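SEVERITY: medium
COMPONENT: batch folding queue
REPORTER: lab tech (J.R.)

DESCRIPTION
The queue accepted two submissions in a row. Attaching both inputs and their returned structure tokens so the on-call engineer can compare them side by side.

ATTACHMENT 1
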Amino acid sequence: MTRFATYPSLNDRPVIISGGASGIGEAMVRAFAEQGAKVGFVDIAVEAGEALAAELQQAGRTVHFIACDITDIAAYQAVIAEFSRLHGDALVLVNNAAHDQRHNWAEVTPDEWDERMAVNLKHAFFAAQAVAPGMAKAGQGSIINYGSISWMIMTPGLPVYETAKAAAHGLTRSLARELGRSGIRVNTLVPGAVITQRQLDLWIKPGGLEQIEAQQALSGHVKPADCARMALFLAAEDSAMVTGQQFLVDAGWANS
């Protein structure tokens, strides 16, 4: 039987996760809840978010869901403040929310550019801005920005998304320097080809799973739980002297 790590430092630790109702986000909500963390998560998928929170609450976990559009910065920062009231100031922030809708570079308008940057990058900065004072007061904290392997392997059909995800690591590096003396660590978690239901429904064509596996050094497929376990390590005190770095969970993709 496979056994995974338990992190005592995450017990009772307030955690905020964006985009937590499905896919990788859902896996992280479950993983942090299982560690005994106090989890607050947001998503625009109200029904899925409420169902997940109710399930975990019934299992005795401290989990709260608040529906929120993270591109509305004032609303999102107000939700972060509400989570602080419920759980205490966040000591872990996971900037997971994103939207990988395919698009043609030649047809992108200025408004579409701004919208895609808002959903894939902007919210991460302002969420960090909102939680950093509480982390600094505690003298500790971990911010995890989600990147993407897509820009590293030059995946076609989503240039604005890839630009935002490449910039996520620039945000990580800059905030790691800005916040490090306050005891706050900032790192980037970069998923590979994670097999979620959304990917299966929208992007992975017949034969696609075999093509993905052929690009990897490891057999099998990366699952949301694999990313969640890396997030747990980066959030826990086990990674106390790790900051400004990016961690690929990609099964050893050939060109990453």
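ATTACHMENT 2
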Amino acid sequence: MATRVFSDEELGALRSFPAIGKDELIRYFTLTPADEGFSRKFVRPQTVLGAAVQLCTLPAGLWPDEVPSAPSAAAVGRLARQLGLPVEVLRGYVVSREQTRTDHLRQVAKYLGWRSAKSLELKDLDEFLLARAMEHDSPSLLFRLGC
């Protein structure tokens, strides 16, 4: 029988956007000229803004399932102003095929220079988490440490 690590509420929180403070807003939701150029390659206004949201959320440690659910008053508003787009276009970032958001996410990760972990790195992570598991009896803490 499978054991659940997270409650439905915890899973919902992991899949959605948390409150974003002023420091995070400035640190993660400010596009460089190169970031803006990357985002604009997606052409349609909704995909430009959707890609920009993903570009800013990954380094912040966020990867929500619903990109249009980003906090529009703060984060999306800031990005929309930088890109000269209305905030409302993000609602149009409802993709016609499920794989599109994932494809965009992969392109963003590649642009950021992220890559899949190699076996030696996964072994290091495994050893690190095993040592922490001896200290803590909290699967959710181990998950956060692993992230």
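NOTES FROM REPORTER
The longest helix spans residues 119-135.
No errors were logged for either attachment.
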